[in-house]
Amino acid sequence: VQLVESGGGLAQVGGSLRLSCAATGTIQGIRDMSWYRQAPGKQREVVATIPPRGTTNYLDSVKGRFIISRDNAKTTVYLEMNDLKPEDTAIYYCNADDVYYGGRHWGTGTQVIVSS
Predict the structure, then answer these.
(1) In the prediction, which pLDDT does 116 show?
(2) Is there a contact between 97 and 33 (Cβ–Cβ < 8 Å)?
(3) Under a CB-based contact definition with an 8 Å cutoff, are residues 95 and 110 in contact?
(4) What whole-number distance in Å separates Cα of residue 83 and Cα of residue 74?
């Protein structure tokens, strides 16, 4: 399985960006998909998680601003980021839990920079 992210870039405070992550390869075992982020000098943290069906979960600091969604037919996950803040600046990584593989797959990351 390969995860390919797109949609990062530069945004102003209060602006919006939309990230996409497409899974290719043997995707039948993919279950939960998530977005993580890692800011300079900080540990990687989970931003949002979405199961194939059911309840999504969000990091407290992004609740009400970010929306995770997925297209199960394409095994693509999206992260709509609104009202961006400087503290959202980070590299954002797509992650997929694969029950056939017995582990998680990671994308290579996409940079998000929020400037004031």
Answers:
(1) 87
(2) yes
(3) no
(4) 28
Q: Which residue has the tokens 């995707």?
A: 27
Q: Which residues contact 45 (CB under 8 A, 6 or more apart)?
A: 36, 37, 38, 59
85, containing H or E segment: none
pLDDT in tens, 58-82: 999 999 999 999 997 778 999 999 9
Token pair of 100 as six digits = 């056939």
Element (DSSP H or E) covering residue 50: strand 45-50
Length of the chain in residues, anyone? Answer: 116
DSSP state of 54: S
Tokens standing for residue 21: 């992550």
